[in-house]
Amino acid sequence: MNINTLVCGYGNIGKELVRKANEIGLNVSYIIKSDGVYTIDAGGVLSRVGKYSELDGSFSGVDFSRISVGFIAIPASANGLASRKLAVALTQKRIPLVSCEKSLFAYYPSNLDLIAHTATVGGGSRILPYIKMNMPKGFRVHHNAVIHTVLNATLNFIMSSEKSMEEAVAEAVSLKYAEPSAGGLLTTLNSEMDDTLLKTCIVMYDCFLTEHTVNHNFVLDPNAIKVKHLDETSLAALKAERERYRYIVSFSRKPLGERDVIGGFSFVINGWFVSAGFKRFDNNAYLWSLKYVCGPGNAALIFPEGKYPGIGGPNCTVSPGAGPGPTVRTMIDDLRQLIAEKRIVRY
Ligand SMILES: NC(=O)c1ccc[n+]([C@@H]2O[C@H](COP(=O)([O-])OP(=O)(O)OC[C@H]3O[C@@H](n4cnc5c(N)ncnc54)[C@H](OP(=O)(O)O)[C@@H]3O)[C@@H](O)[C@H]2O)c1
């Protein structure tokens, strides 16, 4: 692939993007970090060639006419502003984008139509297209429809590990599934719960709120949805019965009347009831099969008419959702799709 790229963010994902680009013959023309614009040589040495301002998203030292595609791999920011500024600056230059950064879409859903975003939810599992492709006709309006999902592979890795929760978090950080967190176990779990809210908003917009089903008066503002974080008491309760619980996000047309939920969030929008939390699965006919989702996995169980497994059965996907390798593979798949759609104009 003789394509010139610009990579925004040179952390876990950005470095893997550059490695993969070298492997498949993409040219990395520029790298944007929080403190400037860089080029990278064959030995991986960065040289600063220009400025980048986080304040207004302006660049210097970039020859945009050479760029065919941009990758956004920077951390989520308050209200998605940091990546929004990058996205606006690059799309104004008519540069197609591939992003794995969630807040860009959770706060600016119109970007879902403009920017390739498969890796934003479940890095490598492609769970967004899976859900869309497997929702039967009429599912969005069916009054009994239910879908249960594991959207956060890092939380699933921690919950399904046989090690202590502290050890599982340390392993999730060392495998680059989770951000390092100074606060340890509690802070990591709570920040992954916040992250799941952004993923949930993307699933809601991308899979459920279509042009035809949406009531245009709705507002889905992640800032207005309160995540009930864990504290020492609820963490102790969760630890005591960890093998019975997973962090599950459910979408349904009616309230599910759930019990045994620890932490999380819930909201109602456009006729959909959305609830997330550490949910007990071993005593629930809908959820029990999620015990087979182990490690950094994502899953979706789709019950078109709210029926229990065995009667029509659920559709289910289980696949690795976190980690730089799977995430970057999905971003490159998005790039290939852009090429197939002839949206990459400069080679
Ligand atoms: N890890 C996974 O499995 C996974 C899966 C799916 C999606 N993601 C998403 O991938 C993104 C990147 O994650 P990561 O683990 O690679 O992060 P990371 O290791 O913290 O690296 C972040 C990089 O972004 C740069 N940066 C930060 N703010 C910036 C800004 N405003 N403008 C330009 N560059 C900026 C940083 O620059 P400096 O080097 O100057 O600090 C750093 O190079 C996140 O949004 C994450 O949610 C991760």
Description:
The chain is α+β, with helices and mostly antiparallel strands and 347 residues long. The chain folds into two domains: 4-122 and 325-340, NAD(P)-binding Rossmann-like Domain (Rossmann fold, 3-Layer(aba) Sandwich); 127-321, Dihydrodipicolinate Reductase, domain 2. It is built from ten helices and 14 strands. The protein has helices at residues 12-24, 81-92, 103-106, 111-114, 127-134, 153-160, 165-174, 184-208, 232-240, 324-340; strands at residues 4-8, 27-33, 36-40, 46-50, 52-53, 58-59, 69-72, 97-99, 146-150, 245-252, 261-269, 272-280, 297-303, 315-320. α2 links the parallel β7 (69-72) and β8. α6 (153-160) crosses α7. It starts with a strand and ends in a 7-residue tail after the last helix. Bound molecules: NADP nicotinamide-adenine-dinucleotide phosphate (NAP). NADP nicotinamide-adenine-dinucleotide phosphate binds at residues 8-14, 32-35, 54, 73-76, 82, 100-102, 119, 123, 176-177, 322-324, 327.
Beta strand count:
14
Bound molecules: NADP nicotinamide-adenine-dinucleotide phosphate
Broad CATH class of the largest domain: Alpha Beta
Task: Assign a percent range to the helix content.
Answer: 25-40%
For the termini, the CA-CA separation is: 9 Å
Q: How many structural domains in the coordinates?
A: 2
Shape: globular
Order of helices and strands: EHEEEEEEHEHHHEHHHHEEEEEH
| Biggest sheet features | 6 strands, mixed
What's the average pLDDT? 90
Oligomer: single chain
Q: Gyration radius, to the nearest Å?
A: 20 Å
- Report low-confidence residues grouped into runs of 5 or more: none
Measured by DSSP, the beta-strand proportion falls in 15-25%
In the CATH hierarchy, what is the architecture of the largest domain at level 2?
A: 2-Layer Sandwich
Number of helices: 10
- Stated plainly, the CATH topology of the largest domain is called Dihydrodipicolinate Reductase, domain 2
